[in-house]
Amino acid sequence: MLARLVYPLCLLVGALLAVVAGVLHPDLAGDGAAQLTTPGESAVRAGLIVGTFAYGAWTVTVAFMGSAGWSLAHSFTLAEAGMTATRAVFLFDMIHPFALATQRVAAFALGLSTGLFGWGVSQGKVLPRWLGTSGLAAGAVAMGLALVFREDTKADQAAFVLPVAWQVVTAAVMLRRPVRG
Prior knowledge:
- The chain is mostly helical.
- It has helices at residues 2-24, 32-36, 41-78, 83-124, 129-148, 154-158, 161-176.
- Helix 5 (129-148) packs antiparallel against helix 7 (161-176).
- It is elongated and about 70 Å long.
């Protein structure tokens, strides 16, 4: 029952946050070309593209596990012994490897994105240097975990932890800094 309330609210709040961010974004004034070419911008731009892909792939994994996986497991538990239960298990066994492979790709892409963001932070020299270095390290560890460990291990799932933790720390650092402009 709680899930029926939480998920729609998260969707609504996320959409509202995107709209508020767009409304509050400052307009460019003066020389637009000079404002659009800043140190670290290419790395951050690439990080945004790869990060969007990473979170999209991660969403596929979460959606599968949260909906299709649960639905198939529920069908299996409610089915009478015989063909219905067998079909549910067969379908799950066929789709599950796709979700796990998507999880591994998402973990690698999120690590790559975090590394690119860290590189952009290091090149931009606006945020603390340790933040850029830790972003590079978190991204490298996440990519390594995604490459070395199989997708059905906890280590592959751990590949998401450092990039997300780095994003939380980066957000906290950015919130504590005075707003310029």
